[in-house]
Structure formats: structure tokens, C-alpha cells
């Protein structure tokens, strides 16, 4: 199928196809593929990354929702025994049913509108993977990697930090895509790690509430939902006048632990 005959990128899917071979190679390099290693790819589009993954000996399962792209991928890789295509929504497919022999590795070029829900889902299923190499819009990558005290730090930062080691690898310019997006992208490698969080639901509630209004102090945000917020902050040794972005992961864990103790 010629380039002109290929389906155009769809705005509704947030599609921008990576076409720069240098960056395609760099992303696949970051996966550190071992021969016959199991790789999951979310949103392969026309199969640029898929092609390179297969060339390096990966056993690839690709998840693609766009039916036009499914047709392209089937035609392109129909004779490759190392390629399996799942035509489903990555937010709905049960990842545990796809990974044949965990831990696998995962690659994805995530559109902005779906990056946060996909990332939260990957955190939930992180035990299936040894490494995840993801491309985000640069501002999302900056949020994920933001340190305490940074204005970019938020709920998603802490959620990721609690479960994954984060390494920002390199930026990708708009010119590497067709059509070119209006923003730069960044590639990040995430490695699952043991979590110190004992009550995930409460932890997420505490962090979400703490970042509710970023200009407010941590006390003013938390006391709207937790009547013992003041006592918990003292017990956790967290400054009640600090703003949420100033707190480290350890601060959040101690705070959630103190709030849980206050409920018992």
C-alpha cells in the first residue's frame, strides 16, 4: 500500500504518526529487546515501531482500536509469525489476558487525551511488565518527572512515583511526525518497583484531595474531606502551611498512614 493510499491520521484518535527512523530506532533501543522477548505495543498506528520491534526479534502483541489501521497492520505483517494484533480499546482490554509469559515489556506513543487514563491503567497492571517505554507530549512527561517544589508536580506525579521508577530519556520534535503536532514530545522509561503504599484507595484520595486547589495550603485542601487533617499533618511531620507540590512521596505516604490511623 503506497503512502498516499494509507489512511490519514484522525484527529478523533489524536493520531500523529512517527516517521523519523532515527527516533524510531532510539525508542526501540530503549526497550533493550532480547531475542524472542514478549513486547506489548499500544496504538501501533501504521506500524513504524512495530516493524522495528519485529526486526529486532521481539514477539509483538499490538493493541489498535482504529479499524482502518487494523487493516493496514494486518496487510503489513500478515506473514510474520511473531506478530499478533488485538483490535480493541487499550482502556478496556484485559492486559493480564494478553501477556503470555510475564514479565513482558511495553511500548506506546500515547495521544494527550488518553495518556493519563492509560498510564493509570498501566500502573494497575505494572506487575505484568519489567519495563515500559512511553512517548507523551512533553508537558505530560514534565509532570510525571517533576520533583518536589516544582509547579509541574501534581496528582499524577505522585501516583506514578509511588509505583514506578521514572527516567526521562529524550525529546522528540514535531518534525519527526506526520502530520506534525504543535508540541514537542518526550520519551520516558518506567520501571515497576515495590510500592510502600498499603491502602491504594485511601492514598489516591489523600493525594487527589491535597492537590484539589493548588494555591491552597495542604491543610486547607485536606480539611474539606478529612476532619482530622490537622492532627494527621502533625503526626506525619508535614508543614500544614505547605502546598501540595512541596510534599515528597515519603510525606504523602506518612500522611495517608496517619489519616488511616485516625480512622481506626
Structural account:
The chain has a seven-stranded mixed sheet with strand order 4-3-2-5-6-9-7, sandwiched between helices. Strands 1-8 form a two-stranded antiparallel sheet. Helix 2 (48-55) links the parallel strand 2 and strand 3. Helix content is 38%, strand content 19%. By secondary structure, it is an alpha/beta fold. The longest helix is centred in the C-terminal third of the chain and has 15 residues, at 249-263. It has two domains: 11-192, Vaccinia Virus protein VP39 (Rossmann fold, 3-Layer(aba) Sandwich), CATH 3.40.50; 200-263, Helicase, Ruva Protein, domain 3. Helix 1 (21-31) crosses helix 2. The chain is built from eleven helices and nine strands. Mean pLDDT is 93; it is low at 1-5.
